[in-house]
Amino acid sequence: MSPENPAPAADVLRGLGVPTEGRVYELASGWWRHMPSFGGYPRFEVVTYNSPQGQRNEGRFPFADRGDNEVEVGYVSELVSGTLHTGTHIDALCHVTCGSEDEWHGGQSSATALGDYGALRGDASELAPIIGRGVLLDVPRALGADVLAPHFAIGAEHLRLAAEEAGVTIGPSDIVLVRTGQMKYWPDMKKIDEHSAGSGVALDGAEWLVSHGVRYVGADTVAFEVRPSTVPGSPLPVHVLLLQQHGVHIMEWVNCEELSANGVSTFLFLGLPLTVRGGTGSPLRPVAVV
Q1: SS3 category, 65
Q2: Phi-psi region at 57: left, alpha or beta (left = phi > 0; alpha = psi -120 to 50)
Q3: Which residues, listed in sequence order, are joined to residue 288 by a DSSP beta bridge?
Q4: Which one, of 129, 134, 82, lies nearest residue 273 by Cα?
Q5: Per-residue pLDDT, 207
């Protein structure tokens, strides 16, 4: 398996031409043991796997068997477990299925394209580097609020208003981030639940993004879309539309707070997914350069 087609050179150069200050904004959540995550996923674990003291006590100090470690060099390593959808991350195409054949984008079915060690096609190993012009649609700012109310459904009219407020036009090569304001309280999930839990993009908002030809979208929420769903009979209509039907990758828990505080609406977006074979997504450390 090979990475997806990278962005055309013209789009990359367009993005590289955006910065004028050389200032870098961190957009990632950070990662740590038992950090907040979607309730259906395993907790993120980080444990020490090897330590100098443990190696001494167990009589397996590094290199001692060869008699060439007089200076007593040791090392510490770790074991990490959990979902690739922990913290700031991007969804691979195989992440969401729909229909009786459990198909993901491109008509791939879990019946034929899912092995014992992950997806055989449309997995994280096919994720391309993300380089291009980033656009922040700051919906609370456009509505004169600090944060959106719980379960606020961001429709096309809200995204259009945010774009007008920022003075930007969305183009087919853009990487669009939608801010709800939830990460103002990150990582205090009690405050997020109290002030803004469930706010996100509604189906018509996602259709508006698709109509502009975007390939990557992201938000400062756990699920990108409004929860619970506003579409009867469809619990994740935005994921199905974007990822399963149109192949538009979704990024979640993207921290837009510093961009918002400084009134930044356009920037160079850089994000390098881990190309984990069989993975349904990848942790992502994106940055914005202005």
Answers
A1: helix
A2: alpha
A3: 25, 269
A4: 129
A5: 98
Cβ within 8 Å of residue 195, ≥6 positions away: 147, 150, 182, 185
Domain boundaries, the chain: 9-30+85-289, 45-81
Length of the chain counted residue by residue = 290
What pLDDT shows up at residue 4? Answer: 75
Query: Mean pLDDT in each 10-residue stretch from start to end of the chain (290 residues)?
Result: 75 95 98 94 96 89 75 92 98 98 97 97 98 98 98 98 97 95 97 97 98 96 97 98 98 98 98 98 98
Q: Are 88 and 286 in contact (CB under 8 A)?
A: yes
Name the pairing type of β-strands 114-115 and 175-179.
Answer: unpaired
CA angle 132, 90, 23 (to 5 degrees): 40
Q: Give the strand order in the sheet containing 281-283.
A: 24-26, 287-289, 266-271, 130-138, 175-179, 216-219, 249-252, 89-91, 281-283
Query: May I ask the CATH class of domain 9-30+85-289?
Result: alpha beta
User: Is 28 within 8 Å of 257 (Cβ atoms)?
Assistant: no
Question: Which pair of structure tokens corresponds to residue 130?
Answer: 């993300």
Q: Which has the closest alpha carbon to 255: 186, 191, 153, 165?
A: 186
Amino acid code (one letter) for 13: L
225's tokens: 């879309």
20: its two tokens: 């004028």
E strand segments, 76-154: 77-81, 89-91, 103-104, 108-109, 114-115, 118-119, 130-138, 153-154
Opening angle at CA 128, ends 125 and 133, nearest 5: 155
- The answer for residues whose C-beta is within 8 angstroms of residue 159's C-beta and 6 or more apart is 137, 139, 178, 201, 205, 208, 209
Nearest to 228 by CA among 197, 258, 259: 197
Bridge partners of 249, per DSSP, are: 216
